[in-house]
Design a protein that fits this description.
Structural class: alpha+beta
Shape: globular
Radius of gyration: 17 Å
CATH class: Alpha Beta
Number of strands: 11
Number of domains: 1
Number of helices: 8
CATH topology: Phosphatase 2c, domain 1
CATH architecture: 4-Layer Sandwich
Strand content: 25-35%
Distance between the termini: 6 Å
Length: 250
Amino acid sequence: MKVAYRSDIGKIRDLDEDSILVIRIDSVYSSIRQERALFILADGMGGHNAGEVASSLAVRKIAEYLFPTLISLADVDWSLALRSGIKEVNKSVIDYSIKNPEFQGMGTTLVVAILIDRKLYVGNIGDSRLYLINGNRKEIRQVTKDHSLVQKLVDNGKITKEEARFHPQKNIITRAIGCFPEVEADTFELDLERGDIILLCCDGLTDVVDDDEIKEIVLRNKDIQKVCDELIKAANDRGGPDNISVILAM
């Protein structure tokens, strides 16, 4: 497996409030024969540096929650582990903001993927996404579903997916870490196929680069780090209105 990742401040923001983490479990522990990896991406919000605090705290806490089980090789219900872990992360972020009033109101999206051999387990809150791009079939599929106002409008047939990208309320999310006492993550279990490429990204990419262009950029490059760089360049070429973060695994 090849993995690459990058976060970029974009062209407008003063701070990068995104946080990302990649852990190759099988590379760290030679006794683990399976391919095992943990991918985490969070897009913080809250003004000043509160978003940066929320996203970095969420990434650290979910990694601390999942890592011991990932190295134990125990038989685990990973979807349940993701939902439970995300609830704990939400509590940690809220507790931190209560103890540190200057950070009250901070929050973050969160998308987490656990790879074990050819199985992928995904959990998400907010509008950061996980895609599968298949090089053999030349297809892109959004696995996660945004927790956002415009997604509800799309679901109800009020607007199209393309119209959602340019809607004035596109950045209003309906679920987030740190903003509500209780959160419920969506979880997904997938069997990976030959040719599948995993992409985690924030809305700094998807708000300005459509799915078809993302697919074309991913599939035209064999150098995985170059793919990350080109995705970020594509977002910045369209004004870079937000921080841009991507994680790729193939």
